[in-house]
Amino acid sequence: MNLEDIIALDKADPLAHKRQEFELPANTIYLDGNSLGALPKAVKTTVAEVVTQQWGEDLIKSWNSHNWIDLPIKVGEKIAPLIGADSGQVICCDSISVNLFKLLSGALKLNYGRKVVLSTSDNFPTDLYMVQGLSELLGPELCALQLVAEQNIEQSLNESVAVLLLTQVNFRSGNLLDMQRLTKLAHDKGILVIWDLAHSAGAVPVELDKCDVDFAVGCGYKYLNGGPGAPAFLYVASRHQAAVKQPLSGWMGHAAPFAFDPKYQPSASINQFQSGTPSVIAMSALDAALDVWQDVDMLQLRDKSLALADVFIRLVNGQDCLSELQLCSPDKAAQRGSQLAYSHDDAFAICQALIEKGVVADFRAPNILRFGFTPLYTSFEDVWKAVATLATIVETELFKEQGFNVPLKVT
Ligand SMILES: *Cc1c(COP(=O)(O)O)cnc(C)c1O
To answer: Is the pLDDT of residue 98 over 90?
Structure first.
């Protein structure tokens, strides 16, 4: 593969024009949109307007006049088509961790009599921590976490399991689980399923309704580009909404919050899953960020995502000096999300050197270099330059310099 082939790929890319909708720093190749999405230009103007006009001028009237009160539903409805959900099932609120607490509690209650929450040992830790916290609260007789390897999920499904908690795309390896098949197998044993879409919403086509999923959570600040700490979202299938209850019964989830009734009465809709007052500025940023998806075909996005990763792998394989990098993501493209993981003993230092040379990737303990591909703003030429930089760093052993070996709080 040479630079001409790469340029031809960019020329033929039907999503190439989306890049101009993002604010991208000069001389930077950003392969970390799976951790913090880039800034859509529209967000800058919207946030300025929300702060200056809505908050600054219109003050409290804005809850009605600018519909602040409906933002969680409005933003949820914008996310819904990206994850294959019909109207009325998605709401934007809180963080994934908090939303998991609500859904885990609700699902355990629906499946009363069973106590096991089955998940995978290399799931994103917060998902497991939330189960552990709930287990502390409820006691082991009502909630017990059981962990298995990803390849052993199927054989571990049995009638003692109340809830199957899975992340669709593994945050480290990028392994993509078969949502339809696993949900069906779980349902056959009476198990409710919660899917974490942190690395799949906006990265791969997701079909929650079609897969008959019960519950899901997902992230606003990764592929959805809502900004640092953007609110998350949750999905509750319509068929469960009448029966399921969540314990963080704050006033925003009440059937009539402004009746100020001393007795809690949950909203009959997905609104029940709100707790307190929404974070209006942050949610407005996510609201504006979601507009970039309006004309995006998720199948085209998937094609480009796989093509970017394929080019990356081929370019790495073509460099002798990179032979010590081991691909830890699945070989088969269809089994991957939108990221690649490589192991290397010096992964941390290599990552620091890459960042210094303008290629932003990230490091995941203990020895993983992670490259995320965000098809809306990553070009094939970016991939070409990233691998060339990586090769130079490894070949010249630049990463061995002292400065690249200083530990950081956030990696
Ligand atoms: C990023 C991520 C989270 C983040 O959770 P927050 O509570 O929103 O910070 C959760 N789960 C997975 C799988 C993630 O990748």
So the answer is: yes
* pLDDT above 90: residue 409: no
What value does the mean pLDDT of the chain take?
97
Coil, helix or strand for 197? coil
Ligand 1 pocket: which of 34, 170, 219, 368 to mutate (most atoms within 8 A of CB): 219
Q: Residue 330 maps to which CATH number?
A: 3.90.1150.10
**CA-closest residue to ligand 1 atom 2:** 198
**Count of structural domains, the chain:** 2
Average pLDDT over residues 396-404: 93
Q: Are 224 and 79 within 8 A, CB to CB? A: yes
Long-range contacts of 41-45 (CB under 8 A, 24+ apart): 42/288, 42/289, 42/291, 42/292, 43/225, 43/227, 43/285, 43/288, 43/289, 45/288
End-of-domain residue from the set 269, 293, 317: 293
DSSP labels for 108-142? HHHTTT--EEEEETTS-HHHHHHHHHHHHHH-TTT
pLDDT at 194: 99
Q: Is the beta carbon of 167 within 6 A of some atom in ligand 1?
A: yes
* DSSP string covering 236-259: E-HHHHTT---S---GGGBSSGGG
Residues 218 and 351 in one domain: no
Q: What is the pLDDT of residues 7-24, one digit of tens each?
A: 999 999 999 999 999 999
Ligand 1 pocket check: which of 36, 96, 104 to mutate, most ligand atoms within 8 Å of Cβ? 96
Q: Report the distance separating Cα 122 and Cα 282, nearest Å.
A: 30
Q: Is 199 in the pocket of ligand 1 (CB under 6 A)?
A: yes
**73 Cα to the center of ligand 1, angstroms:** 21
Q: Given this model, what pLDDT does residue 26 score?
A: 95
352 and 260 within one domain: no
The token pair at 25 is: 């720093």
Which of these, 90, 318, 54, 59, lies nearest to 195 by C-alpha position? 90
